[in-house]
Amino acid sequence: IFKGTVRENILFYSDYDEMRYQEVISACSLKDDIQRMNNRDLTELSDNGANISRGQAARISLARAVYRDADIYLLDDIFAMIDSNTSQHIWASCIQGPLMQGKTILFATLQLHCIEKAERIVLLEETDGFSSIIMQGPYEEVKGNEFFIHLDHNEEFLPKAAPLDTLENNAVPKFSVLESPMHQVSDSEDRETGAVKLSVVFSYLKAAHLVLFSCAITTLISQQIFDNLLRYWLAAWASDSASATVLFYISIYSFLSFFFF
């Protein structure tokens, strides 16, 4: 989640399609959350989604991926931070819904109730930091495996989807977008009105030293420019708008990352 509105986080520099956008936020169970926000989907989010719950952040990230309309999706335990009722809705409306029909989905999860409809299941076991394949095949074949049965019955080993009141409510910080008076992402501060006096400006410049101050300003501006360029390039890479090779995209991304960091 980056600093910007809910809509900007979902679109991720893609063109806005009202019909698809509404279908995506509905399938990802975001409509009710957006309706409760003070400025709806134009509500501003802070970096890393600090002003929303982890469940909301997970669903916004999923909506971003689904809106992209890719051919292949890699989903890493997306239900870990989502309550069970919401996860069932997302599984039925999004994962198995028309939006992802005909897509290839690689779905990593510990929630075994989600995999019954999978075409192929791969059981992995981690040993000494390395994962090995124990068995693979359709659900009817895998469910009889001793390791799968052990996972299915061992509640201490398998993390269950957390209840609604622990993730979707208590995880929201006190300055949540659902509670703040406007759509600001930080607490209000006292301030004076009117123009800043030149004496104040010169005091800051004198204290900071002109050369150091100029370097700091230049660095901040450059960092912001390269940060935006990195996001635009990732969006272009995801849509493959340049129709170039992977090496080309990686080379440009590495070049921009070098100057950004």
Automatic annotation (TrEMBL):
Transmembrane portions of the chain:
207-226, 232-260
The protein's superkingdom reads Eukaryota
Q: Which Gene3D superfamilies match?
A: P-loop containing nucleotide triphosphate hydrolases (3.40.50.300)
List the Pfam families.
ABC_tran
> Could you tell me which InterPro entries the record lists for this protein?
ABC_transporter-like_ATP-bd, ABC_transporter_C-like, P-loop_NTPase
- Which is one GO molecular function term here? ATP binding
- Domain ABC transporter stretches: 5-78
> What keyword terms does UniProt attach to this protein?
ATP-binding, Membrane, Nucleotide-binding, Transmembrane, Transmembrane helix
Q: What is this protein called?
A: ABC transporter domain-containing protein
| Organism from which the protein derives | Vannella robusta
Organism phylogeny: Eukaryota, Amoebozoa, Discosea, Flabellinia, Vannellidae
